[in-house]
Amino acid sequence: MVVLLLSGAFALAFTLFTTPLFIRLFKRLEWGQFIRDDGPQSHHTKRGTATMGGIIVILGAVGGYFFGHLVTGERITVSALLVLLLMVSLGFVGFIDDFSKVRKQRSLGLGGWAKVAGQVIAAAAFAVLALGFPDENGLTPASTAISAVRDIEWLDFALLGGPVIGGILFTIWTIIIVVSASNAVNVADGLDGLATGSSILAIGAYILIAFWQFNQNCLSPSLDAAVEYKCYDARDSLDLAIVAAAIVASLIGFLWWNTSPAQIFMGDTGSLALGGALAALAILTRTELLLVFIGGLFLIVTGSVIVQRIYFKLSGGKRIFLMSPLHHHFELKGWAEVTVVVRFWLIGGFLVAVGVGLFYLEWAVL
């Protein structure tokens, strides 16, 4: 518990107190946000606002995690390193995209396929590593089974053709989750503080989930024999809670400067990184399908874009929403930006509560 608090405290202090320094640095480097001409007119005042703030969030989270372990001497685990690795890898993909936008002064950075290729490579590397590094009990950070609240034994990819075929299918499954989650958070990053606050709620859920899994771990010597049949075999659960806490704390400090009117944006550097961290936590805590609720707001926002495009093509140019993603639709209907953000936070928080509630309900009724 001490290492969790120390990691969170460092990450919070880092982003809260150093973000103004980074804002000045990024403005000096002319890393300013480019605004689409076809976007809401109210957004044109944001042109030139410092961007790529995801760098600060990543530094705060990584620094917080290692600071807590350095001070307490607690063991650094493979599972937590995998979360940070995927977060940093996708953050690098986002940084290339952001830097390209700033340099070319246009809203399109990396080509769509180039960005997806970067996400696929990062996700594939994560999947391969997550099935390696067995501990003394032979348990790897991830398993080849699809999971909901825990692994679903009859949905194990390894049953379809052994460990090799199972590993390949798991890698494809992981790529789908990672690419979907990272792009979903990216799509939601359109209003001041929207993606940041929503990510705090979603990733914060994994502090609770992972900590509960640690308390009810099958290998825990303090596990109550009466509930032993309900135990979890997820690996390094406490350290996953710690890394989730470091990310959340880093986001809270960043939100102080990112909330409306934002003095800095996280950019694709931050949104892709956060989506990757969310996906990694879902995979390593064996709660992949639960991500539909925990990341429900991101799913809704992304779904609005998909529905808009499909309807536009099928109807010959008609639209369901005034503009997609969905948050821009409500802006154009006259809602104040801060109103949209807070109401979307409420929706996201409700869906997170449903997800965490289902996680606990499974244990309670088992």
Question: How would you characterize the overall build of this protein?
Answer:
This protein is mostly helical and 366 residues long. 66% of the residues lie in helices and 2% in strands. The chain contains 12 helices and 2 strands. The chain has helices spanning 2-28, 54-72, 78-104, 112-130, 162-188, 194-215, 237-258, 267-284, 291-294, 296-314, 326-332, 337-365; strands at residues 145-147, 151-156. A two-stranded antiparallel sheet has the order 1-2. A hairpin with a 3-residue loop joins strand 1 (145-147) and strand 2. The model has no long low-confidence stretch (mean pLDDT 92).
Primary descriptors:
single chain; 366 residues; mainly alpha; two-stranded antiparallel ribbon; 12 helices; 2% strand
User: Which strand order spans the largest sheet, edge to edge or round the barrel?
Assistant: 1-2
Low-pLDDT windows of residues: none
What number is the mean pLDDT? 92
Sum up the overall morphology in one term.
globular
Order of secondary-structure elements:
HHHHEEHHHHHHHH
Share of helix, binned: 55-70%
Largest sheet, in brief, is:
2 strands, antiparallel
What portion of the residues fall into strands of 2 or more residues? Answer: under 5%
Ends apart, CA distance between termini:
28 Å
Radius of gyration based on Cα positions: 20 Å
Which class do the helix and strand fractions yield?
A: mainly alpha
Number of helices: 12
Query: Strand tally, please?
Result: 2
